[in-house]
TrEMBL record, chain A:
The keyword Nucleotide-binding applies. GO terms for cellular component: plasma membrane. PANTHER family: ABC TRANSPORTER RELATED (PTHR24220:SF685), IMPORT ATP-BINDING PROTEIN (PTHR24220). Keywords: ATP-binding, Nucleotide-binding, Transport. This is Macrolide ABC transporter ATP-binding protein. Residues 7-225 form the ABC transporter domain. Transmembrane segments: none annotated. Pfam families: ABC_tran. InterPro entries: AAA+_ATPase, ABC_transporter-like_ATP-bd, ABC_transpr_LolD-like, MacB-like_ATP-bd, P-loop_NTPase. GO terms for molecular function: ATP binding; ATP hydrolysis activity; transmembrane transporter activity.
From TrEMBL, chain B:
InterPro entries: ABC3_permease_C, Membrane_comp_ABC_pdt. Coiled coil: none annotated. It is a multi-pass membrane protein. It comes from the Bacteria. Residues 194-310, 641-744 form the ABC3 transporter permease C-terminal domain. It comes from Micromonospora craterilacus. It is found in: Cell membrane. Keywords: Cell membrane, Membrane, Transmembrane, Transmembrane helix. This is ABC3 transporter permease C-terminal domain-containing protein. The chain crosses the membrane at residues 21-42, 188-211, 243-265, 285-306, 327-346, 358-379, 408-428, 638-659, 694-713, 725-750. Its main location: membrane. PANTHER family: BLL1001 PROTEIN, MEMBRANE COMPONENT OF PREDICTED ABC SUPERFAMILY METABOLITE UPTAKE TRANSPORTER.
Amino acid sequence: MTSEPLLVADQLTKSFGPTTALERASVQIMAGEVVAVMGPSGSGKSTLLHCLAGIVAPDSGQVRYQGRDIGAMSDTARSALRRGEFGFVFQFGQLVPELTCLENVALPLRLNRLGRRAAERRAAEWLARLEVSEVAGKRPGEISGGQGQRVAVARALVTAPKVIFADEPTGALDSLNGERVMRLLTDAARQTGAAVVLVTHEARVAAYSDREVVVRDGRTRGMELAA
Amino acid sequence: MSDLLLGARMAFSGGRDGWARAVLTAFGVGIGVALLLLAAAVPATLQARQARGDARYDFRLGEQLPAAANTLLVSTFDTEFRDRPVRGRILRPEGPQAPLPPGVAALPRAGEVVVSPALKKLLDSPDRDLFAPRLGHPEVIGTIGPQGLAGPHELAFYLGSDTLTIDGSHRTDVFGGGPPGEEFGPTLILLVVIIFVVLLLPIAVFLGAAVRFGGEPRERRLAALRLVGADRRMTHRIAAGEAMVGALLGIVVGGLLFAIGRQLVPLVTLWNISVYADDVRPSPPIVALIVVAVPVTAVVVSLIALRRVAIEPLGVTRRAASTRRRLWWRLIPPVIGLVLLAPLVNGVSAVGAVYTRYQVAAGAVLLLIGAVTLLPWLIDLLVRRLGGGPVAWQLAIRRLQLDSATSARLVSGIAVAVAGTIGLQMLFAGVQRQYTTETGEDTTRATSHVQLFNIPDGSAAIRQLLAVPGVTGGTGTLWAGIVRDGSSPDQASAGFLRIGDCPALAEYAELDRCVDGDVFRSLGPPDGGPSVDAFGPGTQVAVGERETPWTLPADTRTVPARASPIGWQRSEILATPGAIEAGRIGPLSVDTYLDFDRDDADTLERLRNTAAQLSRSSWVGTLSGTTQADRLTTIQRGLYIGIVVTLLLIGVSMLVGLLEQLRERRRLLAMLVAVGTRRATLAWSVFWQTVVPVLIGLTVAVGFGLALGSVLLRMVNMPISVSWPVIGMSTGLAAAAVLLVTGLGLPALWRLMRPAGLRTE
């Protein structure tokens, strides 16, 4: 782990209409660490994750990735960053229903212009690592929720990202499947050296992290950015 | 009933999403309803136009009326302006009770004119100098009201006169009572029947598609109701209630769209036809039928759609997702259609019979429905075999493989319209030969023919016409009737004398040699007018109205007649100016053939002005190789208008369908963007997803169109021929509509692709 933070959120404020989702929230993520962002429903956890990933622009404050201000990047550059450096796992609705699981996992590689065969070969490897090889040819609608989340984790990891953003990745799973997904996700991340930003409200899930950041009423606690 | 009401409430539940879904459904159904109302209004609209045309009819058949206090002399002064017909009448009242034409408050006096609002606009525009001179710059004293016009954009005028006489005019004491219209022959009836089928079937197909908007969320809601205890029958009743409310709302929206469209109708002129808003009135029984049939259709379609899914408490599964579509029943409609049309293949002489009309309509409908039933099967079959390609292509093809029915529904409307258009165009191409007559006009020899009657100084008139700016050349002759001296003007002793220089006379006869002073007897075919047998050399004749005596010179030569540029070939005496002094004959008529650039529309208008100033009873026409029967032209125009309107509205419906699809997938789109998917990739995926079914649909449409066209051509005993440019145009027009829809859908796609769409709280 280097001393320079990989990803920094500094004094982020974000409102949706009259609702303030984030208020001067700050956090920093070091390379390779697993950080759990915790808090009750509506506290601003997901908004913080979306801001960190460059999905949503904050009203004020700054997000820096490897020292570069994400807010100053063009939309194209941000998309390229998400495609190449970041991986995502969401709670639901993340797999493209019309593609097979293998094609879903290969999708980020193909978006990065990798040929179909090479992309699908690498996707198959990741499906095997996530122990879901048997669903490669099936569509998301034909597999279980736990299998779907493991496919989603494979998809998030297939590009060897520097940061994985996971928003309630086990929210729709039973405890057994949840445990399995979290173990596979954190193990794979540690093996590849990827940092994980894990949004959850479950202490059981947060236990897989190296440290926790609590968000309440849009403010972060537990790990304020050092001046 | 409580289930139905619950369904009705659910149509609007779900906050903004629920409302958006309801609005999309209502709009989709509304477009269909508006189109149906428009179609239902066509007969009344045509009837109203016809009624107003009859009301201003000014010609009285039978014995001529004597002049009286209630009579009016009317002379036809129709003209054209930039290819738009101008209806003109010169009026001279013969007493204080002379009748007023409909829509006219007071008869114009000499130097006054009453004009239609459209002509008033023209006279107030910079183009006035290209039209006003032919009326003699009269004072406009009023405008013609709607009851005296065929449509709001019709160019028409009533010009006052104090010099009009019964010669060259007719007398009337009442306006109204038009002549019986030109009858539609069996072939034309066939055309009209098929046109209605072609225009209305896509609308029905789209209504079926529109009532399914929001199907997926509806099924999810029904699953949630199953979870809390609703049984299958209850869910069906709830679905029926929801569909019915969407359809009823659609009827209201359709009524509103129709009312708005009706107000906009007067702003549009297509092929010189304009219509008043008040004329567009759908017949009440058809309105009642629409109001009942649309909700019933919506309910039936929804219930049929639900048969393909199993709604269980924990979610929805599609029963037919993995089973292939069956072909056999999809072939039934086109086969029955062909069976119905087959007996008529050797001719439809009895098509006027009601039974045959229904047989043709049913056959054509079933054949075209075949395109609708076969299309989903074909799209399914072909899309299953596609694969590979870049990400955008893969996303589109996989989406189609998962659910091609939605695309097929949206495309089938276009396919039917195109198939019908191709079939009709083939029939038109064949029938055109039957109804198009060769004019015999030779467009290589002249651009325009100007005819003036009984002009005091014809030679000066010819010079004036040749001097009109833009005219590059031409010839002119003077002509009058002749009678052999001392004879009564019967067939044997009456004829025509034409005076002109040698080049001008060469347009009427094969002159081997000609010098000024020569006279010729031009011999035409037996049906080429009065014979010149009675006019041998040395014959004394009386020329023109003043019966000016003249003797044919002894060296008069006989020459064969030549068809003039307008195709007339007749026997007459031709004289050069050196042989007869035209100035002493009195009023003569004038024929001029003029050359100018056909694309220079202003020259033609200036010619019309000059001709009208020289003689009110002038004729100015451009030469054309062929002419079509008016009825055929009207039907063809009707088809073009209908197809353009149908394609436009289908395009709008497709756009609504596309927006609905995008809206349902907005979370997925947002997720794809969140993981870094390029916008262009998603745009291309939407493009391919639209284009692939459309290409398959158009291929099917061409096949069915050719089949329909071939059958129709055989029915009117025409050889089968294919006009590929027409097919290219029809498919191109449809393809353009699809591209336009995709283009218009892109802004919504950009909006829905915002990563912020991931936010759920």
